[in-house]
Design the sequence.
């Protein structure tokens, strides 16, 4: 394995993965790992997927919607209503549109909300409306992820 400088990160190689033409909702939560969403987006688009980002308010503290929008060429969704013109962002429409949803990074807080149906932000309501498969990449330290309380709170 070769080391690459941080300024030249490479997207994951998703070639031949069958993602051409697939519609992916990428959910981003409030974790330091949110910067990795840029690599995920680049990899998905390189593989031919169309990506729509839905980000939590805490996620915007770690990575800006402008960066994500520049990569996807789509407005980033974070609220139920667009701040620009008041347009309704329908979580139900997103749930019907997508071929898959990936939540990366996914914090313990978001996992708890998902498990308990606490629909207090656009990402959770989109997850609850999703008809397609949902993939989750947990982002928490090993102490948190191994703690029994984390699993009890997030038991599906």
Sequence:
């Amino acid at each position: 394995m070769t080391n690459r400088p941080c300024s030249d990160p490479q997207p994951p190689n998703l070639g031949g993965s069958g993602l051409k033409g697939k519609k992916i909702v990428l959910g981003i939560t409030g974790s330091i790992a949110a910067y990795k969403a840029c690599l995920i987006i680049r990899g998905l688009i390189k593989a031919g997927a169309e990506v729509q980002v839905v980000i939590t308010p805490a996620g915007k503290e770690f990575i800006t919607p402008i960066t994500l929008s520049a990569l996807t060429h789509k407005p980033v969704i974070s609220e139920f209503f667009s701040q620009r013109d008041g347009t309704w962002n329908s979580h139900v429409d997103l749930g019907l549109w997508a071929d898959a949803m990936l939540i990366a990074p996914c914090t313990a807080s978001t996992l708890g909300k998902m498990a308990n149906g606490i629909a207090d932000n656009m990402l959770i309501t989109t997850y609850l409306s999703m008809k397609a498969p949902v993939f989750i990449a947990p982002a928490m330290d090993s102490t948190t992820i191994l703690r029994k309380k984390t699993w009890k709170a997030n038991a599906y």
